[in-house]
């Protein structure tokens, strides 16, 4: 893919654009959560709107994992007999499962405070949350449940949906807080890979580290620092 000047878009630029969209969707959620009355028509519709943003945030994070290791992921997908074109992938659970086959860094790693060491180097403490594929998939699937109408002829399903709706706002606040804790300041690590030479499933040294700071909540600014990742 190229930009308007015809120059190819660099992976870190594409990733930063995805994080800008993540931040915008988090801000949209915050506006609804902070409103004194429904921003749509009802509280249930507000919740549905926010769960849609949550689902898209998880999708953006998932595709971000491909951006950091695109060549390695493309090589993995090329092995498939059916539908080997990774550009057509869209199912979050499947993409994350495939990424987990080729890199231990398939999700962003949350960062804590930055420390300035005696030798002048900067070091980030680990973030307070832990990124896990199970939690991201769980959030994604839960968000999807809020975007479908239950079968009106299934009384049990209708009762379960009413219970889910009653708990929706409290659960949403928990999951949004988790996503913010993981994503607000994080590092996205990419592995070294030489197509046609390296084994896609053999662990490789980290090669790139994109340090991302979403910064102030009220704007679209996303700061990114590019660094060479330290070997594991």
Automatic annotation (TrEMBL):
User: Which protein are we looking at?
Assistant: Uncharacterized protein
* Source organism per UniProt: Pelomonas aquatica
């Amino acid at each position: 893919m190229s930009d308007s000047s015809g120059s190819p878009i660099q992976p870190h630029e594409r990733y930063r654009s995805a994080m800008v969209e993540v931040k915008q969707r988090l801000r949209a959620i915050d506006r609804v959560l902070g409103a004194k009355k429904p921003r749509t028509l009802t509280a249930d519709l507000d919740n549905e709107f926010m769960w849609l943003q949550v689902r898209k945030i998880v999708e953006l994070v998932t595709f971000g994992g491909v951006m950091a290791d695109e060549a390695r992921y493309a090589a993995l997908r090329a092995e498939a007999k059916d539908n080997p074109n990774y550009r057509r992938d869209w199912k979050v659970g499947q993409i994350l499962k495939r990424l987990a086959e080729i890199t231990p860094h398939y999700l962003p790693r949350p960062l804590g405070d930055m420390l300035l060491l005696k030798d002048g180097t900067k070091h980030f403490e680990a973030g307070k949350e832990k990124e896990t594929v199970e939690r991201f998939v769980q959030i994604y699937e839960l968000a999807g449940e809020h975007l479908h109408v239950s079968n009106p002829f299934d009384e049990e399903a209708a009762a379960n949906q009413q219970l889910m709706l009653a708990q929706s706002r409290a659960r949403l606040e928990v999951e949004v807080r988790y996503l913010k804790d993981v994503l607000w300041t994080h590092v996205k690590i990419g592995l070294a890979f030489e197509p046609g030479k390296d084994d896609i499933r053999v662990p490789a040294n980290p090669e790139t580290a994109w340090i991302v700071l979403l910064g102030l909540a009220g704007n679209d600014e996303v700061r990114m620092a590019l660094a060479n990742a330290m070997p594991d």
